[in-house]
Design goal:
Layout: H1 9-53, H2 55-67, H3 71-76, E1 79-88, E2 93-99, E3 105-112, E4 118-125, E5 131-138, E6 145-154
Antiparallel strand pairs: 1-6, 2-5, 3-6, 4-5
Length: about 160
């Protein structure tokens, strides 16, 4: 006579994980309609406020808001990119630096290599943070290679 065996602990854990995953999608499916209703309610509140203000005032308010700089335009003014040309002969290497303007800090950097022969071995901010440094080498290239190094600077 054959006996039924109890499921292994691994099967129990797998089933539990399956049910948790399926319930997560069910919850997400229920949240999306709630988000749509909240968005519709927000639009209704905005239109109600516009009715209270009157047509002339709401139009002036919208125009004033359009002229006011937002977070994206403000952040764009804080970031600049500085560049410098580089030139390295075959089987050579050089430690290159791109300096930011006074009062700015280098937060990132990189280089381009149109010929495809150069490699960056070290990319780092300078000790004072005012420039970005890179050590670039050129392999057994057929001639001197040139390109651009750049630094992303933050005010």
């Amino acid at each position: 006579m054959s006996r039924l065996r109890l499921p292994s602990p691994a099967l129990a854990v797998a089933l539990l994980a399956l049910f948790v995953a399926l319930s997560g999608t069910a919850v997400a499916a229920g949240v999306v309609p709630l988000a749509k209703r909240a968005l519709t309610a927000d639009k209704a509140k905005v239109s109600e406020m516009a009715k209270r203000l009157g047509d002339g005032q709401s139009a002036a308010l919208v125009q004033r808001a359009a002229r006011t700089p937002g977070p994206a335009s403000s952040a764009a003014g804080l970031v600049t990119t500085k560049t410098a040309a580089w030139s390295i002969g075959p089987s050579g290497g050089n430690d290159l630096a791109v300096t930011c303007d006074s009062g700015q800090k280098a937060i990132s950097g990189g280089f381009d290599d149109p010929g495809g022969w150069a490699h960056s071995w070290d990319s780092r901010p300078s000790s004072d943070g005012g420039s970005w440094r890179m050590y670039i080498t050129v392999g057994t290239a057929p001639s001197t290679q040139t390109g651009t190094v750049f630094a992303v600077c933050l005010r």
